[in-house]
């Protein structure tokens, strides 16, 4: 893969790749003896080394609607390679772009993928990366540039078309930001709110399970103090979260006065999954997230990250007022139910 990309770079002063971030880190390691200290230094070094970079995953994301309408579910190299070299791709790409030259019908391409597909093999992945880029670039021309396609375009012309909107945008996996922009400042990212969990407080054993759960949530929201969490228990909960979600998706710290745990997550999806994890937990309850569904949490209030500062989203104050009103309403209802059970 390295030598294929190097040859392309020397010939056209560009580089085409998939999952570019790890590859660029690897290539930079062999071009710089001194370790770069800042993110901006790394961006400058990469941009100097490779003036034009096109990542197939980012290019595919620009065509997401068109690809998903034809049942291409994700943008991994395996999925894109399989889809674009099957008969299905003919529905959205009207011209034949065979993998092997000298066969305008493209039949040899389909046969090649059926017989020799070997993903995660460096040589095969390099071949497919180039093939996927060429086909996606033609699709980009067709869908986004309103150009008529009756034959294949030269490679350099395809790079020119992709230069403004696609080139030098490097996807960074597992974070809630679109990309690293080598041409300038990165767009401001968004991260989910901190998840705060507290110990459950049990009501009397005569109450039903639903009332006990509701009592626990209300107590956590309304009480000014809670039982302290020991460091051993903190480590146990943290290990459970890392085992279920991975250390690269969650981080945990002790809350104020060791009375709660605060959990940071990398994306809205992880945020919703962690909340669901504690919904089913025997010992802990999420604070300030009463009765929300997975879908509501997925689109819940966010915080905008600018540099290292975090600014609350505008909708938080109204959300907090709604929660307080709901809590008092439910408290009255719960008290009435408990009195009825006692009498």
Automatic annotation (TrEMBL):
Gene3D superfamilies from the UniProt entry: Ribonuclease H-like superfamily/Ribonuclease H
Organism name: Ancylostoma caninum
Protein's GO biological process: nuclear-transcribed mRNA poly(A) tail shortening; priRNA 3'-end processing; siRNA 3'-end processing
Pfam families xrefs: CAF1
Bilayer-spanning residue ranges: 12-34, 321-339
Gene Ontology CC terms: endoplasmic reticulum; nucleus
Keyword set, alphabetical order: Membrane, Transmembrane, Transmembrane helix
Signal sequence interval, chain numbering: none
Name by which UniProt lists this protein: Uncharacterized protein
GO MF entries: 3'-5'-RNA exonuclease activity; RNA binding
Stored SUPFAM superfamilies: Ribonuclease H-like
Family: Belongs to the CAF1 family.
């Amino acid at each position: 893969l390295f030598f294929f990309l190097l040859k392309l770079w020397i010939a056209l002063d560009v580089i085409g790749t998939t999952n570019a971030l790890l590859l660029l880190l690897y290539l930079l390691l062999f071009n710089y003896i001194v370790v770069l200290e800042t993110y901006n230094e790394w961006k400058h070094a990469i941009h100097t080394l490779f003036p034009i970079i096109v990542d197939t995953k980012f290019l595919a994301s620009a065509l997401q609607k068109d690809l998903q309408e034809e049942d291409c579910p994700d943008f991994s190299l395996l999925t894109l390679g399989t889809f674009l070299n099957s008969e299905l791709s003919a529905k959205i790409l009207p011209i034949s772009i065979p993998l092997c030259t000298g066969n305008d019908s493209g039949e040899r391409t389909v046969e090649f993928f059926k017989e020799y597909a070997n993903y995660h093999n460096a040589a095969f992945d390099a071949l497919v990366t180039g093939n996927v880029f060429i086909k996606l670039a033609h699709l980009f021309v067709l869908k986004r540039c309103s150009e008529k396609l009756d034959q294949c375009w030269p490679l350099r012309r395809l790079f020119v078309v992709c230069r403004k909107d696609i080139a030098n945008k490097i996807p960074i996996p597992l974070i809630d930001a679109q990309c690293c922009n080598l041409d300038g400042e990165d767009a401001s990212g968004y991260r989910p709110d901190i998840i705060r969990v507290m110990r459950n407080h049990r009501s009397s054993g005569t109450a039903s399970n639903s009332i006990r759960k509701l009592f626990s949530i209300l107590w956590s929201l309304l009480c000014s103090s809670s039982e302290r969490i020991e460091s051993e228990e903190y480590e146990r909960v943290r290990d459970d979260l890392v085992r279920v979600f991975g250390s690269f998706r969650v981080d945990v710290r002790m809350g104020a006065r060791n009375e709660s745990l605060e959990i940071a997550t990398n994306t809205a999806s992880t945020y919703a999954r962690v909340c669901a994890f504690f919904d089913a937990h025997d010992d802990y309850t999420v604070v300030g997230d009463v009765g929300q569904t997975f879908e509501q949490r997925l689109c819940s209030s966010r915080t905008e990250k600018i540099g290292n500062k975090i600014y609350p989203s505008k909708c938080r104050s109204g959300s907090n007022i709604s929660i307080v009103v709901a809590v008092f309403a439910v408290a009255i209802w719960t008290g009435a139910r408990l009195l009825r059970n006692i009498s």
